[in-house]
Amino acid sequence: MGLFDKMFGRGATKAQEQPNAPQQFDQLKQKYQTVLNSIDQQHIQLQNLHVQDNKLFVRGIAPSEDAKNAIWDQIKLVNPSYDDINAEISVDESRAQGATAGGSSTQGGKTYTVKAGDTLSKISKQQYGDSDEFMRIYYANRDQINDPDMIKVGQQLIIPPDDNA
To answer: Domain residues of the chain, as ranges?
Structure first.
């Protein structure tokens, strides 16, 4: 399963609320694949990626204005009218150091040692009370996790602080 194959984050549309949401999500994800690739390349920490109001909703935190602008430039190339995407990209320059080094700062975070049977969703549920926030942990640990579905017993993971606490 690929990095962007799941709808996640607070506010993600549930399939029972909007029956065509999974298909619409797949179509929009395919259309904006170059944007999603750029998000990964620019070290944007995604907080949400889902279908909302028949649009692809993207919320993330960029390590710099340049990274944020690169995403907007890519969105303009795909769809200059922005009629099927809503992107909320904020900038947190304190993330720039960790992103350029291939990891994330532990600033305000804590560490967690992976145990047998753990998944990022399970750890997210324990730490944040919401299993859909697993991508926050993934992005904080991209230096040691290549796939959010593949973590190893004994890994020391950075758990970013809960922004909503």
So the answer is: 21-99, 103-159
Mention the CATH class of domain 21-99.
alpha beta
Measured between alpha carbons, how far is 83 from 98 in angstroms, rounded to an integer? 33
Q: Say if strands 85-91 and 110-113 run parallel, antiparallel, or are unpaired.
A: unpaired
Per-residue model confidence as pLDDT tens digits over 27-53: 998 999 999 888 888 888 888 888 888
DSSP summary character for residue 113: E
Cα 129 to the center of its chain, rounded Å: 17
Domain 103-159 sits in which CATH superfamily?
LysM domain (3.10.350.10)
pTM: 0.54
Please state, in angstroms and rounded to a whole number, the distance separating the CA atoms of residues 87 and 57: 6
Cα–Cα distance between 124 and 138 in angstroms, integer?
10
Helix (H) or strand (E) holding 159: strand 156-159
Segment (H or E) for 23: helix 21-31
Task: Give the separation between CA 95 and CA 41, rounded to whole angstroms.
Answer: 14
Of 159, 161, 145, 154, residue with least CA distance to 111: 159
Beta strands in 24-96 (DSSP E): 45-52, 55-62, 85-91
Contact 12, 59 (CB under 8 A): no
